[in-house]
Amino acid sequence: MSTAQPSVVALFVSDVHLSADIPATTHAFLQFLQGPARAAQALYLMGDMFEYWVGDDDINDHYHQSICAALLDCTNAGIRLYWMHGNRDFLVGADFADRCGLQLLPETQSLRAGDKTIVITHGDAECTGDLAYMQFRKQVRNSQWQQQFLSQPLEKRRDIAKQMRAQSQQKQSAAMVLSDVDEDAVSSLAKAHQAHILIHGHTHRPALHQYADFSRYVLPDWDCDHAASPRGGWLALLSDGGLQAYDVHGEAIQLPVNRHTA
User: Fold this and answer.
1) Is 62 part of any known ligand binding site?
2) Average pLDDT over residues 182-192
3) Which of 23, 117, 200, 214 could form a Cys-Cys staple with 123, CB 3.0–4.6 A?
4) Is 168 part of any known ligand binding site?
5) Where does Mn(2+) 2 bind (predicted)?
6) What pTM was computed for the model?
7) Mean pLDDT within 57-78
């Protein structure tokens, strides 16, 4: 007698960093939308899906149109799409959401899976040890700053974003690694929401962290253009309440496990 396999309730993905400069990564993501994503009831896009986003009036760019069309195809296929802002695409707005048929989420969202509470967030707000970034984040998330930025011509905004991107890459290259989340910050977030599971991206350190009171899953970034071997993937919430990680090829994998005793 065969046992039915659990179905896919939701998929979680982040840090694809889409741009026209990464055709192989873009192809992999579009294949994901046309394949594995279609088996899910819901798809959560959890920030930094674009390398940068300078405003919804840039949606008519040919590359952006192709991404929107693929997302809309998922919506039309009956998949519920949710979008959470990251540190690079925080200017995605209502026009983009309408064009793609998706729902914008706040920076922290609670979900229920059976008797468990799952909290999802991009993860950059929990990098509290990076004081320079936290100051920058406060500035660009300010509505007045955003209005002033969006009032500038589109081409100027693109140039500013490219300059900021180059500066960010130089800093990361010098430091070799992105800032990690602060343990107290993630513990406080889990406690505030009485979460059993916390899922985030941003740090590019895919792993499963086990704490006394909750588990923390870190999503991978995607790179099929420059990495020594293609990387990326997603996390699936199954109908039996389990969570399964997949690599960019759609193969089930085991995440490295870190146990925290404190």
Assistant:
1) no
2) 95
3) 200
4) yes
5) 48, 87, 122, 202
6) 0.94
7) 96
